[in-house]
Specification:
heterodimer, A: alpha/beta, 5-stranded parallel beta sheet, 19 strands, B: globular, binds iron/sulfur cluster
Chain lengths: 465, 202
């Protein structure tokens, strides 16, 4: 047998029809309110049913309020969308974590937290950040609504086989450099289309040493490098995280699963279609200055001069970005003032992210001109943070402490950053208008966001005291 | 889905790279639960000012472009969010094809599923076509059968995945096709290990 990559193994183990494109079995289909309604109506219209409701898990996250939930959803369109999901799940026998469920949260936080995300699975969701689940050594990717309908009806997905890419991060991350900085560094080095048509496997010592939360941060933003999916081979860190979670196997089943999981790694002589190397020691905390996630600088650097880019398309994009962001070339990153801080999203709103931010602001105050908000990734994260007293650290410092959801990551609910305002955000997309029309987003790690909240401008957390 | 064979019409050039689906259809329009009604919000933040009035200098708003059916654009078109609403919005507006040097993976799949033809040609060729598209009257013919794009002084071939081409030409419904593989599917399901998770745990 020829040697295979982790990606090949999972692909082959899930092939129902070995055609091109292949038909893959889907072990877990995650569903949220924004990309599912049209799929369910298509299903109803054709008189079809959901083939495997017990392999389908739904939650509400994108359009829901993060305050005053007792009053219900005020926005009539959002309410209609959430009600449609409730109704669709009830009719088809799908488990839904609704607005008042203590397990509700962002779909990519909830799956892993409940133990539904496990190594070796194929996981899809009508959401591009499904790549997050690759942190467990699963093949997980986002699909469109027509494909959601296909998965509901058949529990399979037809896909062209992507190519494989290894990103090897050698050495250890320097102090103060987080998983968010690692992925921002990778995106800036390979570009927003660098991973197009590929499944990335993150490898190397720096990756091995990451916790599960950190691995999820890295895999989450694979899509920001244009990749079809991102994955990290499972190991003891993965197994320890999973053990005892509600949907994790138990007893003898755990041993069987473990035996299988231990086979899930790329063979030593497996060949990747592309290989990239990165030295962890070269990484710094990053801040994006533009309107795509590759447009970033090290915090010690400055806003670049667009004329320094040789590719005309990249140069033009940088010019447009600086105009939208109202930034001048040469400005030191640490001289950029901010008015909003958003600590949230499926990239960086897990318990470790909240701990990291809390440790930066403990005993300090949010700057007068700054409005700062924490939106935990799930209600479970919120409850745990409260048990650890983190809520008080945030509230005492002047942060708002909200309920779980996507919130200002995409500003579909009321959590909109005003036009022209600048926001330090722990989310994954700094696109024009992403956090609100004409809002200006700077992507950073939780620690960097917290420090900026206190200082009122970006600061290098490595020098924070 | 209606079969797509030949597209004949005029063009809109929008030569920016990495146009993400948030630009194609911003988040505030994603609350609808229908597949239609997105066309008027296409490129909303670029097409309208803060008060919602159409910006006359945005190419899509030029009167002479109102009946165009082919968008000519930059590399990595449709990156970012998986929202199929982006394809619905382009389709609703009247576009039947998008020509670009490259497409983001999810966008390309969504386009084929909806019947919006993704036409991939190298950057220099797309730039030449975009230059022709500066004239709103310039007509274009895209022939999916023969993989040809023809305009004035322009005659080029393009690339598309063979399966996508077949599906577009025949207007196939992928779900009915898959459902014909019921016995393969059943056999696969019977081989799955029993410890894979289900929501019965909740
Ligand atoms: S938090 Fe943001 S990126 Fe994540 S699922 Fe929600 S909207 Fe998408």
């Amino acid at each position: 047998m020829s040697s295979s990559t982790l990606f090949d193994k999972i692909w082959n183990q899930h092939t129902v029809d070995d055609a091109d494109p292949a038909l893959l079995f889907v072990d877990l289909h995650l569903v949220h309110e924004v990309t599912s309604a049209q799929a369910f109506s298509g299903l109803d219209h054709a008189g079809r049913t959901v083939r495997r409701p017990e392999l389908t898990l739904a939650t509400v996250d994108h359009a829901i309020p993060t305050t005053g939930r007792g009053l219900g959803i005020r926005d009539p369109l959002a309410k209609r969308q959430v009600d449609a999901l409730k109704d669709n799940c009830a009719r088809h026998g799908i488990q839904l974590f609704g607005l008042d469920d203590p397990r509700q949260g962002i779909v990519h936080v909830v799956g892993p937290e409940q133990g539904m995300t496990q190594p070796g699975m194929v996981i899809v969701c009508g959401d591009s950040h499904t790549s997050t689940h690759g942190a467990f050594g699963a093949l997980a990717f986002g699909v469109g609504t027509s494909e959601v309908e296909h998965v509901l009806a058949t529990q399979t997905i037809r896909q062209n086989k992507p190519k494989s890419m290894a990103i090897e991060v050698d050495g250890g991350l320097p102090p103060g450099v987080t998983a968010k900085d690692l992925i921002l560094g990778i995106i800036s080095s390979i570009g927003v289309a660098g991973g197009q048509g590929h499944v990335i496997e993150y490898r190397g010592d720096a990756v091995r040493n990451l916790s599960m939360e950190e691995r999820m941060t890295v895999c989450n933003m694979s899509i920001e490098a244009g990749a079809r999916a991102g994955m990290i081979a499972p190991d003891e860190t993965t197994f320890a995280y999973l053990k005892g979670r509600p949907a994790a196997p138990q007893g003898e089943a755990w041993d069987d699963a473990l035996e299988h999981w231990r086979t899930l790694h790329s063979d030593d002589d497996a060949e990747f279609d592309a290989v990239r190397h990165l030295a962890a020691a070269d990484l710094e905390p990053y801040v994006t200055w533009g309107v795509n996630p590759a447009q970033s600088s090290a915090v010690s650097g400055g806003v670049p001069d667009p004329s320094s880019f040789s590719d005309p398309a990249i140069r033009e994009a940088a010019e447009r970005a600086l105009e939208y962001m109202a930034l001048t070339p040469g400005t030191a990153i640490t001289d950029i003032p901010i008015e909003h801080v958003f600590l949230g999203s499926c990239t960086n709103a897990r318990i470790e992210d909240l701990r990291a931010a809390a440790s930066v602001i403990a005993g300090k105050q949010v700057n007068d001109g700054v409005s700062a908000v924490v939106v935990p990734g799930s209600m479970q994260v919120k409850i745990q943070a409260e048990q650890e007293g983190l809520d008080l650290v945030f509230i005492d410092a002047g942060f708002e402490w909200r309920d779980a959801g996507c919130s200002s990551c995409l500003a579909m609910n009321d959590d909109i950053i005003p036009a022209g305002a600048r926001c330090a955000s722990t989310s994954n997309r700094n696109y024009e208008g992403r956090q609100g029309r004409n809002a200006r987003t700077h992507l950073v790690s939780p620690a960097m966001a917290a420090a900026a909240a206190v200082a009122g401008h970006f600061v290098d957390v490595r020098e924070w005291s | 889905m209606k079969p797509v064979k030949t597209i004949t019409g005029t063009m809109v050039p929008l030569l920016r790279s990495d146009i993400d689906t948030d630009q194609i259809i911003p988040q505030q329009f994603l609350k609808r639960i229908e597949r239609t009604g997105y066309g008027e919000f296409l490129f909303d933040s670029w097409a309208k000012d803060e008060e919602g009035a159409l910006k006359p200098d945005f190419v899509l708003n030029e009167l002479a472009r109102a009946n165009a059916s082919v968008l000519v654009t930059g590399r990595n078109f449709g990156c970012g969010s998986s929202r199929e609403h982006a394809v619905w919005a382009l389709h609703d507006w009247g576009f039947e094809a998008v020509v670009a040097p490259s497409f983001a993976d999810i966008f390309r799949n969504n386009a084929v599923n909806v019947g919006l033809l993704p036409v991939e040609m190298d950057e220099e060729t797309v730039n030449r076509l975009a230059a022709l598209a500066a004239s709103p009257q310039q007509s274009i013919v895209i022939d999916l059968e023969n993989l040809k794009v023809v305009a004035e002084g322009f005659d080029e071939t393009f690339l598309i995945d063979e399966n996508a081409r077949k599906r577009l030409l025949q207007g196939l419904d992928p779900i009915s096709e898959t459902l014909q593989l019921e016995s393969d599917l059943k056999a696969f399901e019977s081989r799955r290990p029993s410890w894979f998770p289900t929501t019965a745990s909740f």
